[in-house]
Write a structure and sequence with these properties.
Elements: H1 2-7, H2 14-27, H3 54-69, H4 71-80, H5 94-106, H6 122-133, H7 135-148, H8 160-171, E1 174-178, H9 185-194, E2 198-200, E3 210-213, E4 220-223, H10 228-232, H11 235-238, E5 242-244
Parallel strand pairs: 2-3
Antiparallel strand pairs: 1-4, 1-5, 3-4
Helix pairs in contact: 2-3, 2-5, 3-5, 4-7, 5-6
Length: about 240
Amino acid sequence: KRTMTLIEKNGYPDSVYMNAAKIFQGIHTEKRKDRMLVRYANNLESPMLAFKDEYCSRVSYELAFNALKYQSLLEEILLDSSVYPCHSIPDELTCLLVVMLYDLQDRKFEARKICDEEEPVAEVQEVGHYLYSYRTKLAAALARCRIKYDALSIEYFLPETMWKQERRASALPFCVWINTYKISLEDVIRDLETKGLTKVESVSDFDRYTYAMDQHCRDVLVFPSSLKEELLNLDLFADCKLLLQ
C-alpha cells in the first residue's frame, strides 16, 4: 500500500496498463470504417483481468474510462504528431498505446518511475519507451489541439455538461470508514489532531484542515475534497486503519 501511493503520482505498475488496455478494448468507441484512421484489433472475447489488489483494480478502470472520455483527442494527437501509425506496434496494442498516451499527458510528459518490486511486461515497456521517445512531438500536438479548439485544458474537450458534472463531483466531500478491527475512533481522532486537523460539527463548517463525524454512522468520517490526495498518503490509510468509501 505504501509503495502504491507513491507510484500513483509517477505512473502505474505495468499490470495496471495491461488491464486498463483490456478494459478499454471492450468499451472504446467504434467508428465507421470510412472514418477509421486509428485501427484497433477486433477482439470479441471477454478479457481476462487479474488484479493484484483493490487499488490496482480501481486505477485500471479509472485509466480505461479516462482514455474513453478523451479517445477522439488522443487519436488526434497520435495522428497529428505522426507517432501513429507505427509498424512496430500492431493493432493488438493500439488500446495500450491510447491508454498509455492518456497517462503520459496526465503526467505532463514526464518519465514514468519504475518500482523495483514491479514485474515488467514486455508490451508495456515497448509502448512506454516508444511514446516517451516522441514526447516532444506529442506535447506539441496536444498544444496545437488546444489552440485549434480554444481549450484551456483537456477538460474542455469534453461536452460542457460532462465537465461541469465532473467538477461538481470532484468538489464533493468524501467519506472514510474507520476499520474498528485495527483502531478505535478515539485513536483516529487523536492521530488526525496531531496532524493539524480540527473536528467541526457539519460539512457546512468545513475549512481547509477540518473533518466531521457522519450524522448516522459513528465509524464514518467526512473530509473536504481538497484533502483527499494528502490524506491518502497517511499511514492510517496505508495500514488500512481508514478505508476510503
